[in-house]
Amino acid sequence: MAEDQGLAVALFSEILTADQLLRNRLSKVLPKGMEISHFSVLNHLARGGERSPAQLAKSFHVTRGAMTNTLGKLELAGYVHIRPDWDDARRKMVAISPAGIRARDVALDAITPMISELVGELGQPKVRAALPILRELRVKLEDAGDTRR
To answer: The pTM is what?
Structure first.
């Protein structure tokens, strides 16, 4: 049992440390003024189309207040359009703007070399082998529920 506990602690310690290091490196290469959360939302909207703030909060596992804050900054920058939901006036819908698409593309161009370098250093076979494990871990954590909502 102690071995399982030590293995679990080592796994999560590595994941948390890697997350912190990756976030630090991403923050340094993103365009001035763009935060990781901004890029993440723009990237999500660019691939998935219009969403409500509540849907975005759920997708990113953050509170509605945190998402509202991020969306407010993105709207102020002109990167998203927020409109009333035509079917339910109590709700809003968020779409990426042309400026948001350009900002997302610039950010993607900035981070791609760093990510590609990391993958190259690790080697594609190792990355391919790690992805299913990381996906399964994410799904298990999602299934366990998020108590912040």
So the answer is: 0.83
Q: What is the CB neighbour count within 10 angstroms for residue 31? A: 13
**Span 2-143: which CATH code?**
1.10.10.10
Could you tell me which residues come within 8 angstroms of residue 7 by beta carbon, excluding any fewer than 6 positions away? none
Residue type, 77: A
In b/e form, how buried is each residue of 4-17, taking b as 16+ CB within 10 angstroms?
eeeeeeeeeeeeee
Give the DSSP letter string of 38-58.
Answer: HHHHHHHHHHH--B-HHHHHH
Residue among 33, 41, 18 at smallest CA distance from 110: 33
Domain ranges of the chain: 2-143
Region 98-110: what's the mean pLDDT?
97
pLDDT tens digits, one per residue of 71-87: 999 999 999 999 998 88
